[in-house]
């Protein structure tokens, strides 16, 4: 699933590790999500949105 996480994270000057710590996951998980190798759970998607001050609809891009 395509996403805007890296763009939003870098715009806020947050490292992958900092975002991972805030969402209680590993840096590798954030990296895999950003590189579209892993789709997060709904719970993690909401945590990412909260920590990036956005909503889930703006984080992920539908590929339909």
Automatic annotation (TrEMBL):
SUPFAM superfamilies, per the entry: lambda repressor-like DNA-binding domains
Residues covered by the HTH cro/C1-type domain: 5-59
Keywords for this protein: DNA-binding
Pfam families from the UniProt entry: HTH_3
GO molecular function, one term: DNA binding
Name the record gives this protein: Putative transcriptional regulator
Upper taxonomic lineage: Bacteria, Bacillati, Bacillota, Bacilli, Lactobacillales
């Amino acid at each position: 699933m395509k996403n805007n996480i890296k763009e939003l994270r870098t715009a806020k000057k947050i490292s992958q590790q900092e975002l991972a710590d805030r969402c209680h996951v590993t840096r590798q998980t954030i990296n895999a999500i950003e590189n579209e190798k892993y789709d997060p759970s709904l719970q993690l998607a909401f945590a990412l949105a909260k920590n990036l001050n956005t909503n889930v609809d703006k984080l992920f891009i539908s590929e339909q």
